[in-house]
Amino acid sequence: MAVFRLERTGNFTVMANLHLRDKSLSLKAKGLLSQMLSLPEDWDYTLAGLASINAEGKDAIRSAVAELAPEDKLIRVNGRTAREAKDILLRNLATVIEARATDIAEFVLQEIKDSGYIGKLAYGIVLTGGSAKLKDLDELFRRVTGMDVRVASAETGIAEESKEKTADPEKTQEQYDKLKEEVSADVDPNDPMYRKIDFAAAQGTNPDVYAWIWIPGTNVDYPILQSATEPDEYYLNHTIERKEGLPGTIYTEKYNKTDFNDPVNIVYGHDMKNGSMFADLHKYEDQEFFNNNPYIYIYLPDRTLKYRVFAAIAFDDRYLMGNYNFYEPSYFQKYLDELRSSIDGHVNMDVNVTFETGILTLSTCIADSPNQRWLVNATRED
C-alpha cells in the first residue's frame, strides 16, 4: 500500500487518499495512519507515543498498527553464532515485539530502582544478545528508562574506542565548572542582567553553544546547545565535548529558533543525582523557594533576557512540540491554561502571561515517575 504525504503546513496536512479508499482497512486503521502522517518526522511513533495523543490505549493502537503491516511480508531475523536465521511475519512483529520489549524495559527500570542504583549507573544500560540488534530497541529502552543505552555484542563486549568516547558525569561536571569560569565576565551578583558571556570562548569548545542559562539560587548555570545536523535528542545523551552518555547537555530542539522569540521555547536537561544539570529545578517543589526565586536569565550574544517564573508543575510526558501548534494563539492559550490548572506544583496567577511575552519551559525528569516531567515555566519581562 503506497501512501504519499504531499504537504504539511501549520494545522493542515495534504495526503493521498489511497489508504482511505482501501476496503481492507478498518476505520480505526485508516484514522491512525492519517494521524501518523500528520505528525512531525521525529515523533515518537511507538505504541506509547501514539497512545499518549489518543483516547484509546496501547492495545487498541497495537491492533491498528498490525492492520497496517503487509499481511504476507516476511522479516528475516539473523541468528546468533550457529543458529539459523528465521523468517517472521511483519504483522506478528508489529503486534507483539514492541509490547514485550516495553515490558522488559519497564521491568529493568523497576529492578534498578529496587536495587537502589537509580541515578548511580554512570555508563547507563548496555544491551547484549541477538535481540539487542532489533532496530531502535536502544531508543525504546532510552525512552522508557530515561537512561543512556548502548548496544554491545555478547561475544566482544564494548569496543575500547567506544569506552574512550563515553562520558563520565563527575568529570563532565568539572569541565562545565571550568568552562563557566572561562567564559563568565563582569559578573555582578546584585545585577544578573549585567553579566556577560564570552560566546567565542564557549563556541571554541563546541560551536553548537548559542545561549547560556542562569537561575540564581540554583546550580543551573550552563551553556545551551542546539545541533543543526544531529537528531534533536542528540544532546540528551552527549556532552558539550560530544562524548556519549550522561549528563548530556542543556539543549533545545530545532523546532525552536535560537533567538528565543518563539511563543514557547522548551529547554531540556537531565535530573542528575549529583545535583548537576536541571536537578535543581526540583527546588521549585518547595513553596518558599518558588516564591523567593522567581527569575531566570537567558544570555545571548547580543542581549540578555529576563524571565519570571509563574508555574512549576508535574506534567505528563507527552511530546509538547507535537501536541501543540504554539504559533496558533488558541493552542498557546490551551497550554497556558493547562499549566495554570495543574494541582501538582505551584502557580502564581498574578504573573501576566501573554502570547507576546511568551513562555519559557524548562523540562526535566521526575525520578520516581517516568511517565511525568517536571516543568518550570516562566514568561519574559522587559
Give a quick rundown of the structure.
29% of the residues lie in helices and 22% in strands. The chain is α+β, with helices and mostly antiparallel strands.
Fold and architecture overview:
There is one protein chain. With 382 residues, the protein is an alpha+beta fold. The chain has three domains: 5-68, no CATH class; 74-164, no CATH class; 169-381, Sortase, Chain: A (Beta Barrel). It contains eleven helices and 17 strands. Strands 9, 10, 11, 12, 13, 14, 15, 16 and 17 form a nine-stranded mixed β-sheet that branches. A hairpin with a 2-residue loop joins strand 1 and strand 2. It starts with a strand and ends with a strand. Residues 158-164 have low confidence and may be disordered.
Fold blueprint:
Elements: E1 5-9, E2 12-15, H1 27-38, H2 47-51, H3 58-68, E3 74-77, E4 86-89, H4 90-114, E5 125-127, H5 137-145, E6 149-151, H6 160-164, H7 169-183, E7 184-185, E8 196-197, H8 199-205, E9 209-214, E10 221-225, E11 250-251, E12 264-268, H9 287-292, E13 295-299, E14 304-316, H10 320-323, H11 329-340, E15 345-347, E16 359-365, E17 372-381
Parallel strand pairs: 5-6, 10-11, 12-16
Antiparallel strand pairs: 1-2, 3-4, 7-8, 9-10, 9-13, 13-14, 14-15, 14-17, 16-17
